[in-house]
Amino acid sequence: MRFSLASPLFLLGLFTINLIHTADAQIGICYGMMGNNLPPANEVINLYKANNIKRMRLYDPNQAALNALRNSGIELILGVPNSDLQTLATNSDNARQWVQRNVLNFWPSVKIKYIAVGNEVSPVGGSSWLAQYVLPATQNIYQAIRAQGLHDQIKVSTAIDMTLIGNSFPPSKGSFRNDVRSYLDPFIGYLVYACAPLLVNVYPYLAMLVTRAIYLFLMLFSLHRVLWYKMVQMGTKTCLMLCWIQCMQP
After folding, report:
1. Where is the signal peptide (predicted)?
2. pLDDT in tens, 37-82
3. Which candidate, 198, 199, 194, 216, places its Cα nearest to that of 207?
């Protein structure tokens, strides 16, 4: 069967619809660690649970965070750092070891749902030299996951940023930039094979700063989505917690 890549954003939109559980609210927060004087991982996980946050993204396989996630019930997007792409792409044994160390050693007590192989790699610009490694690294990780029979439970993809999208409004006319198609089209072919979604880092607030012509409900992906924030106390620190709530109708 041949697949047309003429409208890849529409194709990926179908993947997204099929993967979303529409019956319940979905809340997720990225667990970033670029800073100092950070709270211990177990305190962070307790904060997630106390606020009924059931989804998390880790940008790298931090072992303390993964251990703290055991039996928490929190679903996880686990990141492969860009610095690991070359070694994972050029040696499948390295990929198998990565999966053993960071996935199998924690599964199933840690509910890993997605593995994001690389973050915001672009074939143009400062990270362009890494682009050649994204697809083979993803395929090697996928094959290591598949060898364990987990490819239906754990989807392997990558995360791109919005600069690779040439036209995003209205969504029905979405398309990638022509100068990145040679990078993205083969990756989309892999996604079709693996039945996995393309992960996109979306920053709606920044888009709203540029133009007010974009309808808020489109930026939130649904008429039934709400952006909320609250101040939470963690030890002696007060933190701003920003959450996406998805309340989609069944």
Report:
1. 1-25
2. 999 999 999 999 999 899 999 999 999 999 999 999 999 999 999 9
3. 216
Unique residue bearing structure tokens 């965070």:
65
The residue among 212, 241, 199, 246 whose CA lies nearest residue 226 is 246
What span, in angstroms and rounded, lies between the C-alpha atoms of 61 and 120? 17
For the chain, which residues make up each domain, given as ranges? 8-211
Does residue 48 contact residue 58 with C-beta atoms inside 8 Å?
A: no
Whether this prediction's pTM lies above 0.90 is answered by no
Question: What are the Cα distances from residue 95, in Å, to 47, 52, 71?
Answer: 32, 33, 25
SS3 149: coil
Q: What is the three-class DSSP state of 180?
A: helix
As a whole number of angstroms, the distance between CA 234 and CA 229 comes to 15
For residues 131 and 121, the answer to whether their CB atoms sit within 8 Å is: yes
Distance CA 241, CA 16 (A): 25
**Residue at token pair 């960071």:** 102
Rg of the chain on CA atoms, in Å: 18
Q: State the Cα–Cα distance between residues 104 and 132, nearest whole angstrom.
A: 27
CATH of domain 8-211: 3.20.20.80
Strand partners, 26: 246
Q: What secondary structure letter does DSSP report for 87?
A: H
